[in-house]
Specification:
Layout lengths: L5 H18 L2 E2 L9 E5 L7 E5 L16 E5 L6 E5 L2 H10 L5
Length: about 100
């Protein structure tokens, strides 16, 4: 079901492993059969968390969960905002810098 090449799959699995190991993210791909994703929890009940969708396509189509950027969805922000980042480092920095958002 995933829309990714074997090269992208390998890279995404390594990214997920590192984010879980070094940055306290959780693999939330099991909730999603189109795009690999990780979550960064802000509270113990997972009511507030960042969803980071990993790249899986040459095009960007949020409705079809096709991303050529690293997409962060913040459903707990006032307008359910989503943000696109061209590189993973900027996406991680955004999440870490907002981890105390209330």
């Amino acid at each position: 079901m995933f829309n990714e090449s074997s090269k992208i799959k390998k890279m995404n699995l390594e990214i997920i492993e590192d984010l879980v190991k070094y940055y306290n993210f959780e693999d939330i791909t099991f909730n999603n059969d189109l795009c690999r994703s990780v979550g960064f929890n802000l509270d113990k009940d997972w009511d507030k968390y960042f969803k980071l969708f990993l790249t899986n396509s040459n095009k960007n189509n949020y409705d079809n969960e096709q991303f050529n950027t690293y997409n962060i969805c913040c459903e707990f922000f006032p307008n359910d905002e989503c943000f696109d980042f061209k590189n993973l480092e900027d996406a991680i920095s955004f999440i870490i810098s907002n981890k105390y958002y209330k």
